[in-house]
Design brief:
heterodimer, A: mainly alpha, B: about 350 residues, alpha/beta, 10 strands
Chain lengths: ~550, ~350
């Protein structure tokens, strides 16, 4: 396979990924503009303000927690550092909506926390004393921030680990303290990683329906959803979705433009790692507390809550057999999508490596817009494509072989996998692209001079150097697929339940505790890959 | 590395085969697309299979059921479409996704105003939009109009105004009083909210217990689900913390909504689909609706669960369904206009 064929394949795949947005535009076109006056004034404007506030808050929390802790575990040594380093990624395994349910239950005036508090303070009941409601903007920012910070932590931590100590030491010899060296040398140099992580975290936040709606925040995504559902106005919903997409693309372009003239070259040979400063016992204790806090908030508490509810459930009615069937379906869909998305992501990133930066950037952005689109919207846009293909296959089979295939793709789960690829391709393209970018071009030139054809270069030079980055994105995609709900719900075949839909079926009628087992399995199955991720992120020998 | 990739390709090919395996068609089966949660209807479907031997394959699609069936077109495996809310049922019919069914059994069991004249949709159960109130209030009666009374400032809990249960209530209000009055009323309730309009109907009971609100609007069957202990011991406490009042319109009755079903236009198992519908209005199934789901059965004379009977006798508002459905979009727009959910 020559690179040209690779580029053609990448282009074809890109078209397939973009096809849903064409159907979305077609749907949006069907509606009259009459609706817009209503939508702009009453829906779009306030929803945009709420969305902006939410994203700003989540950005601050994820950046401070993610980058701050990445620095803490890179630059300092304290007991339990390695363990915490791995644990800090654990919130990735927990879907945001589960965390929202858990905290509302725990922090509600009739929940265990406030009940304990009241009995300690000597108050009679919730009428005498209660804390502010978590169903608020600060509550939503907190929940999303403490679940999504690993998206920033992961790349930033990896970048810090690769950062050459010599730069920092230069800063120190020029009279900077350790803190100043962090703020003025390490942090600015980590900008690409922080930006990548933030963009992932913010798109997750933007896309979130479960937690935001549950906590009463009407984001743009929630508005799209209710416009479609309660007014049966799919066209109106598609219009809001496209408007939102335009804003997201604008933001991404702005971010890219801001750093287009900066290149972050590393001395690629053998960067000498940063020597960790040993902390005094008191400081070490403080570091342990600070580094544990996000893990406790984003993972340990919701996990313990789920485990408690699930154990209670198993004790009452045993382990339902449907769990294993659903687990199998979940793993099959998620694995298929992960393999496909990883391969496609690599193909696209590799194909654009020889493009000019500008062209490469636009291709990467195009491949990523699915990530900025709510799962419901992707699903709705995919429906006509998959069923259209199904009809074509059915017709062809009928003419050629004389039998009907029915809805072959739809009934085999291809629609679900397609939706996952569209949604999460950004992770693998972004991962592969940024990893390839770190490899100096001289590497390609040297290999070319030695007569290595492009294909040889990919297999024997680039892949061995970036396979960690690729595996890391693959793990993120897998975990994201396992947690994905709206597209799975709409596109899965008749009679199939994944863990997420099983859980949602219970949660939607308010019997969360019945869904606790499924939720616990989602989180537990996600733990293994997430742990693997923490090992991958540790670039130390 | 290359070997590993080859293995990856093999594994993915195998995975593709595994889930591409077509489902083997059974002798007698019927495919159900439903927006009702599996836990709610599974007991009914199991009973149907037990009594007829017909297997039911179901898929729970919360939103987008109509879009999916429409996209699947003539090849759609859907036989029966089941949903809640008048608007959703009519939507399916208006989009041409249902087919008329003539069945003496259905026509005999379901009152004429609770099914389409052409047999395009049939109501199967009813639920009332009621008021939950703090026990401390000793509230005995209330009208929907009074929910906007400033005496409830900061005391009212309700789920999202855009939820079909609420848009149907608001649409009924418009049908009674007109759009302008409905807007004033909705602004009044908005000003009375004790927390963001979000969550579910059970949260209303929990929030009253937690002193966040004094009264709230929710569906009748949740009372049974909570008080019976079906939702666990915590929910049983929430159910006990509230009084339940059947509100009425000033000049009318209690607003009810329905769950119902249609036979899909391209149903491959049409006869069995009709059998399923007929089963769902049988005495046995209607009893299950009342006993397992705490809904009001649609069949005249079928009993209600004691927990629901204890709420008082239901006087259904007499507005024609068409009047309510007609105002549904206007209701949804009003919710946006007054910023109800913000």
């Amino acid at each position: 396979m020559s690179v040209e064929i690779g580029a053609i394949i990448a282009a074809a795949v890109l078209l397939a990924v973009l096809a849903p947005f064409a159907t979305l535009a077609a749907v949006a076109w069907q509606s009259s503009a009459e609706l817009w006056t209503d939508l702009i004034g009453y829906v779009l404007l306030p929803a945009s303000v709420d969305t902006a506030v939410l994203l700003a808050g989540v950005a601050v929390v994820t950046a401070v927690v993610g980058a701050g802790l990445a620095w803490l575990v890179t630059a300092f040594d304290f007991p339990g550092r390695r363990l915490l380093d791995g644990c800090l990624l654990l919130p990735l395994a927990v879907p945001t909506y589960i965390v929202a349910y858990a905290y509302l239950d725990l922090l509600h005036p009739v929940g265990p926390v406030q009940e304990t508090l009241r009995s300690l303070l000597g108050f009679e009941g919730p009428r005498d004393f209660r804390l502010p409601d978590i169903r608020s903007m600060p509550g939503c920012i907190g929940v999303l921030g403490f679940v999504l910070y690993p998206y920033v932590y992961l790349p930033t931590r990896a970048l810090f680990a690769m950062q050459s100590a010599s730069l920092l030491e230069t800063g120190r010899t020029l009279g900077l303290t350790r803190g100043q060296a962090f703020l003025r040398v390490a942090l600015p140099l980590a900008r690409p990683a922080i930006a990548l992580g933030l963009s992932l975290a913010l798109m997750e936040a933007l896309n979130d329906i479960g937690a935001s709606e549950f906590l009463g925040i009407r984001t743009l995504t929630v508005s799209i959803y209710s416009t479609w559902v309660t007014r049966s106005d799919l066209a109106g919903a598609a219009q809001i979705a496209l408007a939102m997409l335009a804003v997201v693309l604008g933001l991404v372009l702005l971010e890219r433009w801001a750093r287009q003239h900066q290149r972050y070259a590393n001395d690629a040979q053998h960067p000498r790692p940063i020597v960790r400063a040993r902390l005094s016992p008191v400081a070490a204790l403080a570091a342990i507390v600070v580094a544990s806090l996000p893990v406790v908030i984003g993972f340990a508490i919701p996990f313990a809550y789920l485990a408690d509810a699930a154990i209670e459930r198993v004790r009452l009615s045993g382990l339902p057999g449907s769990i294993f069937v659903s687990l199998r379906a979940t793993v099959i869909y998620a694995s298929a999508a992960t393999l496909a998305a990883s391969a496609i992501g690599l193909a696209i990133a590799y194909a654009v490596r020889r493009f000019s930066q500008r062209r490469a950037t636009s291709v990467v952005i195009l491949a990523s817009i699915g990530y900025a689109t709510p799962g419901t919207v992707v699903a709705i846009a995919i429906l006509p494509i998959i069923t259209g293909l199904d009809r074509a296959i059915d017709g062809a089979a009928h003419t050629l072989f004389g039998f009907a295939t029915g809805l072959l793709l739809m009934s085999s789960g291809v629609g679900v996998v397609y939706a996952y690829i569209v949604r999460f391709l950004a992770i693998s393209v972004g991962g592969a692209e940024s990893a390839l970018q770190k490899l100096p071009r001289t590497l390609d030139d040297a290999a070319a001079t030695l007569g290595a054809p492009p294909r040889e270069r990919l297999w024997s030079i680039h892949l061995p150097l970036i396979h960690r980055a690729i595996t890391a994105s693959a793990v993120l995609i897998f975990v994201d697929c396992m947690k994905e709900l709206p597209a799975t719900l709409l596109l899965r075949p008749l009679g199939v339940e994944t863990l997420a839909t099983l859980l949602y079926g219970e949660a939607a009628r308010g019997t969360y505790e019945h869904g606790a087992i499924a939720a616990l399995v989602i989180v537990s199955v996600g733990l293994l890959p997430v742990w693997l991720l923490s090992r991958l992120a540790d670039y130390r020998p | 590395m290359r070997n590993r990739l080859k293995t990856a390709v093999r594994v993915s090919a195998l995975a593709a085969l595994m889930f591409a395996a077509p489902s083997v068609a059974m002798a007698q089966e019927v495919n159900l697309y439903t927006t009702r949660e599996p836990g709610l209807i599974q007991p009914l479907l199991d009973a149907f299979t037990k009594s007829t031997g017909i297997k039911v394959n179901s898929i729970f699609v919360k939103d987008g059921l109509a879009e999916r069936v429409a996209a699947e077109g003539a090849q759609s495996p859907a036989d029966v479409l089941m949903t809640v809310d008048f608007g959703n049922l009519l939507d399916l019919t208006e989009k041409g996704l249902t087919q008329p069914v003539q069945s003496a059994v259905l026509e005999k069991a379901i009152p004429a105003n609770l099914r389409s004249g052409k047999g395009e949709w049939f109501a199967l159960s009813l639920r009332a939009r009621v008021v939950y109130a703090s026990k401390a209030l000793g509230l005995k009666s209330i009208t929907y109009e009074e929910l906007a009374d400033p005496r409830w400032k900061g005391k009212v809990c309700i789920r999202s105004g855009q939820h079909p249960y609420n848009t149907a209530l608001i649409a009924a209000y418009i049908a009674h009083h007109g759009e302008a009055a409905a807007e004033t009323w909705l602004r009044g309730i908005k000003a009375n909210l004790g927390r963001a309009a979000t969550g579910g109907d059970r949260d209303v009971a929990r929030d009253i217990m937690g002193a966040i609100c004094d009264i709230g609007v929710a569906n009748s069957y949740y009372v049974g689900l909570m008080r019976s202990g079906a939702g666990g011991p915590d929910q049983a406490k929430w159910g006990q913390a509230i009084d339940v009042v059947l509100p009425t319109f000033q000049k009318g009755g209690t607003q009810v909504n329905l769950s119902g079903a249609s036979v899909a236009k391209h149903a491959p198992h049409r006869a069995d689909a009709v059998k399923l519908l007929e089963y769902l209005v049988s005495d046995q199934a209607q009893k299950l609706y009342a006993e397992v789901n705490y809904e009001y059965p649609v069949k005249p004379g079928a009993g209600v669960h004691p927990l629901i009977a204890a709420l008082g006798s239901l006087q259904v508002d007499s507005l024609p369904i068409g009047d309510i459905v007609r105002h549904r979009v206007a209701a949804s727009r009003l919710v946006d206009k007054v910023g109800f959910d913000r």
